[in-house]
Structures are given as C-alpha cells and as structure tokens.
Amino acid sequence: MTIELIYKDRNKKAGERLFEKERGEMFSQWIGRGKKILDLGCRDCSLTKYFLNGNNILGLDLDSNALNLCPSGIKTQQFDLNNDWHLDKKDFFDTVVSSEVIEHLYCPEEVINKIKFVLKNGGYFIGSVPNAFNLKNRIRLFLGNKKDTPLGEPTHINQFSYGEMHNLLKSHFREVEMVPMVQKKWRWFAKILPGLGSFLIIFKASK
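^ that's the sequence the OP posted. Answer follows.
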C-alpha cells in the first residue's frame, strides 16, 4: 500500500469526523483569534472551519480532492507528512492542529519534533487520537476480534493508549492536558478511568 492510499483510505470520508462539533468547539476555545495556525491532515477542513474565524490557517493534506472542498478562507497545500518537510518557518505558528492524524504516520515522534520546530515558544500543539486500548477494545482483542477497533483499521500504523499518548507528549512539551471523549452515557466512566473509558484522546500540549 502506498503512502497516498494510506491517507486517502482513512476510516472517515471527507465531511465525516467523529465528535466533530465537540472537538471543533473545544479547539476553537483553546486557539482563540488572531493566531497563525498549521492544520495537519486537514482533509476537507470540516473541523478546521470551527476555528477559522479571525485566524490565519494553512491546511496540509495528501488528498487533493478533499483539499478542493475547503472554504476559500483557508490556505491549503498538498503535502505528505511522512516525507521531509523542508522546514523554513522556525517558531512561526501559534498553534499546530493534528486531529486523527498521528496514528497514520510511520514515525510520529519525528513529526512531533518537526511540529516543535515550527511552533512558537508558548504555542500549542492540539489534536486527538483514537484510544486503541479502552475497555471495549481490550475485551474485543482478548476475544480475538479486532473488528471495529482501531487495530482493525489498516491505515492505523501506530496505536496509542491514554497513558502512552500522555508520556509521548510530556517528553516533548512543557505542559500537557488530556481530555477523554466518549458518548454521553459513558462520560461518568471516562471521568473516573479515562484510560479505559475514553473513545478518543483529546490533547493540548504547550511548548
């Protein structure tokens, strides 16, 4: 499978993002206005539009068809995050967004180092990844069934638990905030045991 197919076959089609409204509103609150933002793996900008107002955004994705659907107020560029970035914008962006992307990358830690390079001191790296090891997924895997789990998605090259994601971010950033996200009826469980209860891991890391 080529890198291009790995991006184009991501588990959500253009326009479909899990917990889109919840994540979009949270990201918008974290970001604020008057910021320079780099959105990695933005797809058709269905999530990006929540923090577009008052900000200068560059969206990157390998899928040119999805990028063509982005609103006109967002600058876009076809880009493969697995390749060399040819970075020339050190300490340039106020915020880097990466939502449902890191699990699709071959070397996520290398990409995080590149994110730190382009991110201003005091800036935020925000995003989300699936919690591959929540309780439901663990039960399914224990029974030998990876269907409907992140491990069953062939484009997920890396899998993250709640604790692993926190440790990865903490090794690179000054402060890390993690927010578990799950359907409303299970929020009480995710609040008590976020590593087992959360479906998605939402994060904000400060440089």
